[in-house]
Write a structure and sequence with these properties.
4 helices; 29% strand; binds acetyl coenzyme *A
Amino acid sequence: ITIRQATISDIQAMQNANLHNLPENYQLKYYMYHILSWPQASFVATTYDDIVGVNDTEVDIATHSDPKGDTSYVRKGEKIVGYVLGKMEDDPEAEDKTPHGHITSLSVMRTYRRMGIAEKLMKQSLYAMCEVFGAQYVSLHVRKSNRAALHLYRDSLNFEIKSIEKSYYQDGEDAYAMRLELDLEK
Ligand code: ACO
């Protein structure tokens, strides 16, 4: 598994992975906005398939996915198994003017879970937000029922629950609004 910065050529595969793993989906232009505005804040986890015996034409170049649609190839043999999409808060209406980052989306393909990939992706993004963009903290939302993600954020990465946002999600589920202070001086 390789963790590297995400590029524009990865966004289709990132969107595919997102559609597979989460009900919160975004238009391609929103991925593009992240990568163009904060290129250092988003990462992908990739691996190389052993393509011996696999007919190359099985990989649809336009969608970067295989016929079943559950694998996202960026280039021949390289596939995305996880991603983190990060940004700096840029809403001029936001009350808090302290520079801070936000994790828009994180997911790892099912067969690659519990290998530490999400933790690595998160750490890379958090580090870049702090070092490159001067983020003093990073925020995110997570479903109250999402035990795996909650464990990752709270226990592995030391995020704190700041508040509960009622009916944050389209289906009415509440979100934990979480935050990690990045002030490394303290
Ligand atoms: N149950 C309990 N704890 C878990 C689980 C689980 N199923 N999965 C991960 N964790 C916790 C553990 O503390 C784990 O450390 P440990 O293995 O040493 O015990 C730690 O997280 C790190 O786990 P990773 O292996 O790095 O996590 P993984 O690569 O499996 O990815 C993720 C975790 C992203 C939550 C994955 O399960 C996934 O893609 N889920 C579906 C999509 C999703 O829920 N994404 C987050 C939505 S919130 C947002 O995007 C801002």
